[in-house]
Prior knowledge:
The chain has 325 residues and is of the alpha/beta class. It has ten helices and eight strands.
Amino acid sequence: MKRLLIVAIIMASLVTAMNISVQAQKTDAIKPEQRFELKKNYDASKSKVKVSLNAYSFNNELSNYVNSEDRDCMTIFDLIDYCSIHNIPAVDLTGYYFVGYPNVPKDEYIYEIKRYAHVTGVEISGTGVRNNFANPNAKERAKDVQLIKDWIDVASKLGAPVIRVFAGAIPEGYEEKNRSQPVGWIIECCKECVAYGAKRGVIVGIQNHGDMLRNADETIEIVKAVNSPWFGVIVDTGNFMVEDPYVDIEKIMPYAVNFQVKESPFGNSPIRIDLARLMRIINQSGYKGYLPIETLPVRNRVYDPHILVSAFVKEVKDAIEAEYN
């Protein structure tokens, strides 16, 4: 009798365990894995890019405000209003124009900007900071890595998907023959920032800024070495130091995570960018992100961003419509 009771208990335990196992399998079967996955095979090839505005276009007025100067000034909130009034869907809020930069602003200030942009109907397409990863001084590089980590946190709180970083100017004594050493520093710093950004949902984009990164090949070298889906290129259409910038733009497009579309492919030159050609390159690449525009003072031209920005935005929008329709 005692033996039968023991057997009954064992059998009951086995049945219970089997039921739990089956139930767990059913639960696992109905729970989709937390991973990137597409089921519908939608054709998104005809979706359009969206225009954005880089805050640097209003550099003087925004700087006057954060520096407490009495001259004409503009706040980030004014800039958001400008975008709303001129039907610019998004804005790149460069860190320089947050009160207290480079110090991280208080959460209340960050969230008020985020709230105001939302209720005004303007998306935040990115942000950016000043840094120099080519600095021979390791302590200074470490400070800049921490600066970017701090502003990755700001970007995350803002809901900005991308933060722009620089490679840095070519340091004296490290020209062509010794270029590999600062390239190594840049890669090392970027890897640390990108790992941090990935944990906070912020993509790190490095800009070809005519510094250590003068062309597509030099920029792609960094991106391939870092080797992360959370790292790419801020394509600066006006800062490829080459004879034909469009060739380098096309070459770098597979790595694009954001843009700075300039009026000229040659910096502050009066030579105008071929927007039809640019949009064709972008469309053929499959890039579907933001296209922040950035206007700059040009030789022999009165610079009034209030007029020039809206005019250039219209040109870019018209070029998008012509290419994508």
